[in-house]
């Protein structure tokens, strides 16, 4: 993958301001790039890592020439091979299920957590200290502590966005919807597109189908950065 380095930097939150925005827009308009990025993310999943571990173990067993342990070795080969078949079968099943995915699976497929690095670098001088502290906790995946910090700056819109994202990570989707509502209702800010997208995912994740369709349709009708994703996810939801 020619964009492997960029994928790695994006996941780690290391893309510079211009590169980050260009990368996000490219994912929306370049289907090939988006597909490669999905493959890259799949290699990071515990499922993929476990499969590689089993394959490595199988190769190690096959290389063993000790006659004393040959029966035991073949038992292990059989067990490991069965594990690989199960894992590969699961992977194939997941691919097939994408065409009729459940709301939870669609949510997992489309939810990509925002990195705080870009926004922090862009607005460091204007951010309140609790928001800066909250961003640091967010980057460390300490979402409870992040929310606690963001609550100390209740009117800060960036704090509201990342508070909502933290709640999503913790499974508090109703709380996240409320935070995103505050941003959307404010309207005159830089985070409306993000708030609308993540709020729509929250409605999807909680099974509010009609509300999710309504929100995704609004995004699809606009010419924002999430337009293409909204169109794709609408097709999937309407298959249900």
Write the layout of secondary structure elements.
Blueprint: H1 4-12, H2 17-29, H3 31-43, H4 46-62, H5 70-97, H6 103-110, H7 117-123, H8 129-139, H9 143-150, H10 157-170, H11 173-186, H12 192-205, H13 209-221, H14 227-237
Helix pairs in contact: 2-3, 4-5, 6-12, 8-9, 8-10, 9-10, 10-11, 11-12, 12-13, 13-14
Gyration radius, to the nearest Å?
A: 22 Å
User: Total domains, how many?
Assistant: 3
Order of helices and strands: HHHHHHHHHHHHHH
How would a crystallographer describe the biggest sheet? none
Could you please say which CATH topology of the largest domain applies here?
A: Serine Threonine Protein Phosphatase 5, Tetratricopeptide repeat
How much of the polypeptide forms β-strand, as a percent range? under 5%
CATH architecture of the largest domain: Alpha Horseshoe
Total number of strands: 0
Into which percent range does the helicity of residues fall?
over 70%
Can you count the helices?
14
What is the CATH superfamily of the largest domain? Tetratricopeptide repeat domain
- Overall shape: globular
- Intertermini distance: 34 Å
**Mean pLDDT over the residues:** 77
Name the poorly predicted regions. 92-101
Question: What does the model show?
Answer:
The two termini are 34 Å apart. With 240 residues, the chain is mostly helical. 75% of the residues lie in helices and 0% in strands. The model is unreliable at 92-101 (pLDDT under 50). The protein is globular and about 40 Å long. The chain has helices at residues 4-12, 17-29, 31-43, 46-62, 70-97, 103-110, 117-123, 129-139, 143-150, 157-170, 173-186, 192-205, 209-221, 227-237. It has three domains: 4-43; 46-99; 109-237, Tetratricopeptide repeat domain (Serine Threonine Protein Phosphatase 5, Tetratricopeptide repeat). Helix 8 runs parallel beside helix 10 (157-170), helix 9 runs antiparallel to helix 10 and helix 12 (192-205) runs antiparallel to helix 13.
